[in-house]
Amino acid sequence: MHHTTAHTIAKVGCALAIALASLITGTPSFAQPRDSEDPQLQQHVAADEKIEIGSAEIAAGHIDIGPRSREGSWSILARDDSGSEPVWRDPSELVIRVKDEALLEAPTGEDFAFMAAQPGEKYYVIPQTQNPEIVWLGWNTQDPQITRELARGATMRIGPIQGPGDVWLFLQDGAFGAPLRLADSRAEKPQDIWVDVNTHVHANWVFSAPGAYVARVSFLGEMSDGSQREAHTLLRFAVGNDVTADQVRTMALEEESTASTRSSETAPSAQGSDAGGDENKEEAGVAASTIAIGALVGVAGLVALAVILYRGRIVRKEIAQARAEQE
């Protein structure tokens, strides 16, 4: 699937959705305006970017997590783009601060029934589109060595997630589209997300309560030579202004949950996750390529409808081709 085309559609849809937000009645959304010239979505990751050692706390600015390959082995690092130049950090030594400024009124529409939010209730949100006042967390598979080695892409596995509240990760088409849930802290098993090679993605991270959170994240992939690679790390979140960084740094996953995660990771191979997760990858691929299409309906009339139908045919064709490749 063409990555640039998907992001172009996303930008157009988001811009139209936000511009008409005051005119259209719909479910409240975490989506925010997106600059059509946003350089962070068109980012270039260089091979010589430095790795910064030591603890850090980031409360605003851009961060991506992703695999890096060195001397035949993988590690997961966080690409911190919040300073004057990007550096990579060990996520387990990083505290991601979700400030009180990230509080938004939680949606209560039918599409968001899984949140069970009450009218007027507010949740902490790292949004899918950037708000420069708070942290902006995504993921990428853009390390130059990774792009050379990966066959098609990688599986990002999230879970378990622990903290005082519930956590959700979801993509949304424009300002009013239904959410595509990628991860839910209430799930019994870790959840897999397919990520194409050389991809940069952002989604909504939602926390129902303030406090210290920790999440296990893994990347698994098949190399062009047929070998398998994987790496694991922890993401640490300080949700709310009153949570100290030390509270988050000293928090560890419960041993029982960690053992359960390891068991689920050793059951299938990375290729098995790829072959067995077609439905998940197809949904994520459709969401990535048609993001903000929902906002076009009713906005641009018959022209928008034609665009939707045309894009839908392309997506279905790509899915059919992917299935043929699997067979």
Describe the structure concisely.
Helices cover 28% and strands 33% of the residues. With 327 residues, it is an alpha+beta fold.
Fold and architecture overview:
By secondary structure, the chain is of the alpha+beta class. It contains eight helices and 17 strands. It has helices spanning 3-19, 144-149, 245-249, 255-266, 270-276, 278-290, 293-296, 301-326; strands at 51-52, 56-58, 61-70, 73-80, 87-89, 94-98, 103-105, 122-126, 135-140, 150-162, 167-172, 179-184, 191-196, 200-202, 204-207, 211-223, 228-239. Helix 6 packs antiparallel against helix 8 (301-326). The relative contact order is 0.17. Residues 1-38 and 255-327 have low confidence and may be disordered.
Helix amount: 25-40%
Tell me the domain tally: 1
What's the tally of helices?
Answer: 8
Approximately what portion of the residues adopt beta-strand conformation? 25-35%
Counting DSSP E segments of at least 2 residues, the number of strands comes to 17
Describe the secondary structure blueprint for this structure.
Blueprint: H1 3-19, E1 51-52, E2 56-58, E3 61-70, E4 73-80, E5 87-89, E6 94-98, E7 103-105, E8 122-126, E9 135-140, H2 144-149, E10 150-162, E11 167-172, E12 179-184, E13 191-196, E14 200-202, E15 204-207, E16 211-223, E17 228-239, H3 245-249, H4 255-266, H5 270-276, H6 278-290, H7 293-296, H8 301-326
Parallel strand pairs: 1-5, 2-6, 3-9, 6-17
Antiparallel strand pairs: 3-4, 4-5, 7-8, 8-15, 9-14, 10-13, 10-16, 11-12, 11-15, 16-17
Helix pairs in contact: 6-8
Organism: Galliscardovia ingluviei
Region (Disordered): 253-281
InterPro entries: Surface-anchored_actinobac
